[in-house]
Specification:
The chain is α/β, with parallel strands linked by helices. It has 21 helices and 15 strands. Helix 14 links the parallel strand 8 and strand 9. The longest helix has 19 residues.
């Protein structure tokens, strides 16, 4: 790990003088500017359990391994993990990095309210050979609760009174999910320490249980985290967590708040986990670091002065070294990290510690998520009105044609392309475009939006991000509302082809997903964010429609 970025070196020296490292380990809430007795003090004090996670999780390993072996021996071939944000992203990384060991069941992460995805998973499921992991820290996340009811109905219809044997829960003590799991007779219930926040929970039961179920090396993962935790106690420049955290903090304070990740191909999925951890932790009070992931490295001229780069290499592959060297030679700060695949736990802990350090640098509480509940409340209001009227109320579009309807408070009249062109042209120095998609999470959609992102970077020299709804609401959604007002948000929706009722809810997954999209649009607009909703009339042709629409807008 090395950098020649002077603001970084100065901040690291300052933090060593101020004893930030030992004060974090001593749980000194003043590190983050919290006054005794304040709400920040209470939330910080109750969310520092991740510091000791290697010690608290070691006694759980035998039980975790026993579950994995019994599942393997019992003929289970598929594991469905129902979760959102911190309860699901680590499992997705572990599945992508380690794959599935021979003889162990495959793992599918369901963190969506998309009808096509959910019904397809239900259709291919063999209830007797599927284990469903219901994963929620709060125990009341609407997406997870809705998915649980959907799959419980399917499994109970097939297996009757023995349905509970196909379910396990991971949650905090005394949650509604724990009560539900016990009443339904779940196979097992894992209770996580309550002082570990969701996005800091990779090395807790939320990460280790799914890892064991696919035969990933849980002991090595936890050992890697423990080794990094030891290194992050060092009061010196070799402290990897301190180095990374002060790099992030120094870059943001220097106006370089677009933290661009260049990851080795083997670790490509890690970007989603880092994105949630850093964006949701630091994006508040008009400041923060915005991770930019899944963006191919470009020519140095493609980037504005708001960029800082973190590159992560492994023992088997690395990002493009020549492009990184050119970017650094052009004056952009680049921090290079190396890690081992079998020590992935070290990477998890390093980023968690670094995020705590970055919060100290920015003078914020990195352990709360002050704006996440706003979109949830707007969604609840929309669903309540749907219950009363049988429909979701939407505003009139600013422009429409036979392909799309475009909604915007800041532009009206003309064609959809003209409305979008005005939004793109409003992207200035230091701004970014956020693509927030409620389309099915499919490769052709991702590819189409990637082309548009590349075109915007070429034209405006600006950063772009891509989030899949509603998952991003538990991730970058905090940054969009709580970070600096530099976002131009394109929220993309389409009509679902089916209406699949959510048991006991009074509405379908299609209605829930649309309410979530509309709720976030309303929240973004309430915070003064430039927001355009693009509603594609034919979801099957959405990728081609988006490509044509933005091609017209960017002429």
């Amino acid at each position: 790990m090395h950098t020649k970025y002077d603001p970084h070196v100065r901040l690291m020296d300052e933090f060593l003088r101020d004893r930030i490292v030992p004060r974090i380990w001593e749980r000194d809430i003043s590190v983050w500017g919290a006054a005794p007795g304040s709400a920040d003090a209470a939330s910080i004090s109750s969310r520092l359990g991740w510091l000791d996670v290697a010690r608290t999780m070691t006694p759980e390993l035998d039980r975790i391994r026993a579950l994995a072996e019994s599942v393997k021996a019992g003929g289970i071939t598929s594991v469905y993990l129902l979760g959102m944000g911190g309860s699901s992203l680590c499992a997705e990384v572990l599945r992508a990095v380690f794959g599935v060991a021979e003889g162990y069941p495959d793992l599918a992460v369901l963190d969506t309210t998309d009808e096509a995805t959910i019904t397809a998973a239900g259709g291919r499921m063999d209830p007797a050979r599927t284990l469903i992991v219901v994963s929620s820290k709060s125990g009341g996340t609407v997406e997870v609760a809705s998915l649980e009811r959907f799959f419980w109905q399917r499994v109970a219809a097939a297996l009757g009174a023995s349905a509970g044997r196909q379910f396990i829960a991971i949650t905090d003590p005394d949650t509604a999910l724990r009560t539900l799991a016990e009443s339904r007779g779940y196979r097992d219930v894992f209770i996580n320490p309550p002082d570990i926040g969701g996005r800091f929970s990779a090395l807790s039961l939320f990460g280790l249980v799914p890892a064991a179920l696919i035969g990933a090396p849980v002991e090595a993962i936890l050992a890697g985290g423990a080794a990094m935790a030891g290194g992050c106690r060092e009061e010196s420049h070799v402290n990897a967590g301190l180095q990374l955290g002060t790099f992030i903090g120094a870059a943001v304070k220097d106006g370089r708040d677009k933290l661009t990740l260049a990851l080795s191909p083997r670790l490509a999925s890690l970007g989603l986990w880092i994105e949630q951890l850093v964006a949701e932790s630091t994006g508040k009070h008009g400041k923060g670091a915005l991770p930019v992931v899944d963006e191919p490295l470009g020519h140095p001229d493609a980037y504005g002065r708001d960029r800082a780069f973190v590159a992560i290499a492994t023992e088997v592959d690395a990002p493009d070294g020549r492009k990184l060297a050119a970017i650094q030679d052009a004056g952009h700060p680049v921090l290079r990290l190396t890690t081992r695949i079998d020590g992935l736990g070290a990477e998890f802990f390093q980023w968690e510690f670094a995020t705590a350090v970055a919060g100290a640098a920015l003078g914020i509480n990195p352990f709360d998520e002050t704006n996440v509940s706003e979109a949830k409340e707007k969604t609840k209001g929309l669903l309540a009105r749907f219950a009363a009227s049988g429909k979701l109320t939407e505003p009139a579009p600013a422009a429409a044609d036979d392909r799309v309807a475009v909604y915007s408070r800041t532009a009206a009249g003309g064609s959809p392309s003209e409305v979008i062109r005005a939004a793109v042209d409003s992207i200035g120095a230091g701004d970014y475009a956020a693509f927030l998609s409620y389309l099915p999470h499919q490769a052709d959609v991702t590819a189409a939006i990637a082309e548009v992102r590349d075109a915007i970077r070429a034209r405006r020299h600006s950063a772009t991000t891509f989030g899949v709804g509603p998952r991003y609401l538990h991730s970058t959604g905090q940054y969009h509302k709580g970070g600096p007002n530099t976002a131009v948000a394109f929220v993309i929706t389409a009509d679902d082809e089916t209406e699949t009722p959510i048991p006991e809810a009074g509405y379908s997954f299609a209605v829930l997903k649309r309410a979530q999209a509309l709720g976030d649009v309303g929240t973004l607009e309430a915070h003064g964010r430039r927001t355009v909703r693009i509603h594609v009339k034919d979801s099957a042709s959405a990728p081609r429609t988006l490509e044509r629409l933005f091609a017209d807008a960017l002429k």
